[in-house]
Every structure is written in structure tokens, then in C-alpha cells.
Specification:
By secondary structure, the protein is of the alpha+beta class. It starts with a helix and ends with a helix.
């Protein structure tokens, strides 16, 4: 009980000064598929696109930008920010789940299993006046999500990551 009370007090102090909102935790597993190639090339923010089965499993989520923990294959559990939705900046015709893992990888990992633990909601999906405005907001989302995850470090050891099915 004391652990829970300390955690809630800490989260309330954190959320009072930040926009990110806690959500009911949701775990999603999928396979990394090839996307549009815009994340790295246009936006400087590489993303791992989850397969259609994962997109369907996340269909109950509101569209928008989330933060959480991610793991590729049997690799380390890392901070991540995820976009769920239609990418209105690009007028996509199908919904996607795109995970930006806050880490430098040496290459692509298409076909690998990706596990993502949704923990918080940062903002709604919107279209921006310019590509520069979108890039600025992405950078702010990454900073906000990273800071929020500092309050959830213990979840890196969750069985979702340590004992994958």
C-alpha cells in the first residue's frame, strides 16, 4: 500500500506540470513491417510500423501520440513514443501504429517482434501548417514522453518484456 501511495503522489506531482496523461496500461505485440519511409528521411524520427494484426488489436485506442516502453526481439526495453492513427499531415487512407524508439539502432529490423507497453497519452493527432512545425512537435513529444517514463522505470522489468509468450 505504501509503495502505491508513493507512486500515485509522485505521478500527481509529475502530471501537474506536464501535459502527458496517464492511461490504462495496454500491451501490444506485433511484427515490424515496412512503412512509408518518411520517419527517417523526412522527419528525422525513424519509426517501426506494426503489422495490421497489431493495428487491429489497438483499434480501441483513441488516435494520437502515446508514450511507453518498447522492446525489439529479445533486446533491451527502451523508452518510446508512438503514433496511433491516420497521420493527417499526409492524409493516409489507413490507420497505423508507428513506434519511435528513443535509441540509435544500426539498421532496420523488419520482421522482428516488437512489444510496446502503452502508459500515457501526450496529444491528439493533428495536421500542422508546415513540415518544420511537425518536426518541432515530434521533438517535443519525444522529450515529454521520455520525461514521463522516468516515473515508470520499474515497468522495464514487467513480465510482458521479461517473459514474452
Amino acid at each position: 500500500k505504501q509503495w502505491y501511495q508513493r507512486r500515485v503522489r509522485g505521478l500527481l506531482r509529475f502530471s501537474a506540470g506536464n501535459m502527458a496523461k496517464l492511461i490504462q496500461r495496454f500491451n501490444l505485440t506485433g511484427v515490424v513491417t515496412k512503412g512509408f519511409g518518411r520517419g527517417s528521411k523526412e522527419l528525422g524520427c525513424p519509426t517501426a510500423n506494426m503489422d495490421e494484426k497489431a493495428v487491429l488489436a489497438a483499434s480501441h485506442l483513441s488516435t494520437g501520440i502515446y508514450y511507453g516502453w518498447a522492446c525489439v526481439g529479445n533486446g533491451p526495453v527502451l523508452k518510446a513514443v508512438t503514433s496511433v492513427g491516420w497521420n493527417p499531415q499526409y492524409n493516409n487512407d489507413h490507420k497505423s501504429v508507428e513506434v519511435h524508439i528513443i535509441h540509435e539502432f544500426g539498421g532496420d529490423f523488419y520482421g522482428e517482434t516488437l512489444r510496446f507497453m502503452f502508459l500515457g497519452y501526450i496529444r491528439d493527432e493533428v495536421s500542422f501548417d508546415s513540415l518544420e512545425a511537425l518536426i518541432d512537435r515530434i521533438n517535443a513529444d519525444v522529450s515529454e514522453g521520455s520525461a514521463a517514463l522516468d516515473h515508470h522505470l520499474d515497468l522495464r522489468e514487467d513480465p510482458f518484456f521479461t517473459n514474452p509468450v
